[in-house]
Amino acid sequence: MKKKSYSWNFLAFLSLSLLFIGIFISGAEAAEKVVTSGTLTYTDLHPNLNALTWDNADWNWKHGYDTGFVVEHLLMGDLQKGPRGSKQYSFENVGYIPPDVITGELLESWEVKKKPLMQLIFHLRKGVMWQEKPFMKARELVADDVVYNLSRLKNSPKAIPLYLDFLGKMETPNKYTVVINMAEWNMDWPYLIGWGYYDGIPAPEQEKAPGGPRQWQNLTGTGPYMLTDYKEGHSQNYTRNPNYWGYETINGQKYHLPLNDKIVMMIIKDEMTRMTLLRTGKLDLMMNLNWKYVAELKKSCPRLKWARHIGPQHFSVAMRMDRKPFNDIRVRRAMNLAINKQEMIDSFFKGNAELHAYPFYPSFRGVYTPLEKMPPSVRELYTYNPEKAKKLLAEAGYPNGFTFKADMAGDADQSQLDQCAIVAAYLDKVGVKMELQMTDYPSYLAKMVKKTHSEAYFLINAPGTPIATFRKNFVTGETWNPHIMSNPYVDKTWEEVVKDPNLTEKQASEKMRNLIIYILDQAPAISLPVPYYYTAWWPWVKNYQGEVRVGAQRSAPIMARIWIDEELKKNMGY
Asked: Which of 102, 147, 439, 519 lies at a C-alpha separation of 20 to 30 Å from 418?
């Protein structure tokens, strides 16, 4: 009996010992040493595209992507509420930050007043310094700089219609305070001037620098990095800003940001080249990895870490509602019924896609309606019914089908180019011939901006906030409205949502839910499945959990909080 008792006590002791060892190891891993040096080499969400402009007054969607390491915004997403903290938000959407996870970047705090005057009152951080350049000495960011930038953005000849109409007189009662008197209420103001696609705050001196703000050498901001080299078709190189204001607390210790010396953001058009660089450890992190490579990489590189996200962009076929044949809703509905979207998910995407994520993502809390809760007329658009498609075409006066042109960016992702061919093949079965007009991305984009695009347009489009998605895609005269939708009910409802200061968030959400159902029922586009994409990184990439954006197209605050364990990388043979 004693022997048995001894054996039991020994096992209990061994179990407790192993438990304490496990806790010790776990704690050691959690408290591993932060090394504030090293170089992070990675590819971002659009690794095939060169910088499109360095000047935000050009109103280009990619400005924040290219300048976001240098140029900061008034607001950003709070990463402590993401995967590395409270897990309140995933930070996977390109252009959406829920209101409850917004924090200040250049702003210390802000106030919103609706009575007696509609005002936004911004309180800037003190001691934030502009980076020094040959054309300017380092100096402190002040309120006049913010007013200058917002005014320049609003008055740009390329400004998007309706975007900044709410901005009235701007005042600076002191060097750290900006008061914006709103000409009208706009519920979406944080996105429009705080963390959106166009509202970065560069130094005013750039405008008068030799070569002007479109020259990369003149890019000047307050951010964690300085742009030190740009090679078209190869890389954008960023070096630590030693005078950056930001800090991060990790394991109870405060560290000056950024946590690495250098960022190399590679520009690589060829997918296989990107895969090779990741596989061989020459890329530390790949933010946007096609699902079709995942299974093989998990076998050949089992130590890679992974995160899966719903696609960063909607990919749809926008049909011009102002021209034949797509001015007839029967034709637009027929185009949708001719495409077997579920088969595309099963065969082309191998199950790695969502059927219904256009134009709202499932993560758009409060306004997204699942497909099964849509009315039958909307649900029908996601079914495959070529016979009914032919019937509708005949009713519309096209019993033998028709031929139309569609614009597409020839330098787009290969998966998107493949989908173009799939759409053409399906349409051919109902007698509709699609002629693809391929151009480089800048030319493709210019066609939409100038509204000179063909009858159809393969729209590569990242959503903004729910309100912004309505405006830019469906409101009359908007830049990103290649459907040329001009519908009084849509315009009126959007205005009610965005401009009524008395509207509660719940009331606004209900109006948006109903409006998107109405828009989808108009079939302005062939909404294609939205694929999942993957983010992969090596174990030596520390303090990273798969986050991709803290605002529209901006990953810089995420990258600034990463450090590289060079010793681990070396020990792993890379």
From this structure: 519
Q: Which helix (H) or strand (E) holds 558?
A: helix 556-559
Strand runs (DSSP E) across 428-477, as ranges? 432-439, 456-461
Collapsed DSSP state (helix, strand, coil) of residue 103? strand
| DSSP conformation letters of 330-391 | HHHHHHHHTS-HHHIIIIISTT-EES--SSS-TTSTTT---GGGS-HHHHGGGS--HHHHHH
Query: Rounded to an integer, what distance in angstroms lies between the CA atom of residue 446 and that of residue 453?
Result: 9
- CB distance 284 to 42 below 8 Å: yes
Q: How far is CA 499 from the centre of its chain?
A: 25
- Does residue 6 surpass a pLDDT of 90? no
Taking domain 314-531, whether its CATH number is 3.40.50.300 is answered by: no
H/E stretch holding 537: strand 530-537
pLDDT in tens, 471-484: 999 999 999 999 99
- What's residue 521's pLDDT? 97
Q: Domain-by-domain residue ranges, the chain? A: 39-274+538-571, 314-531
Q: Which of 246, 191, 176 is nearest to 64 (CA)?
A: 191
Tokens of 189: 């103001």
Q: What is the pLDDT of residues 386-410, one digit of tens each?
A: 999 999 999 999 999 999 999 999 9
- b/e code 460-486 from CB counts within 10 Å (16+ = b): bbbbbbbbbbbbbbbbeebbbbbbbbe
Task: Please give the radius of gyration of the chain, using alpha carbons only, rounded to the nearest integer.
Answer: 26
Per-residue burial over 492-506, b = 16 or more CB atoms within 10 Å of its CB, e = otherwise? ebbeebbeeeebeee
Query: What is the CATH code for 39-274+538-571?
Result: 3.40.190.10
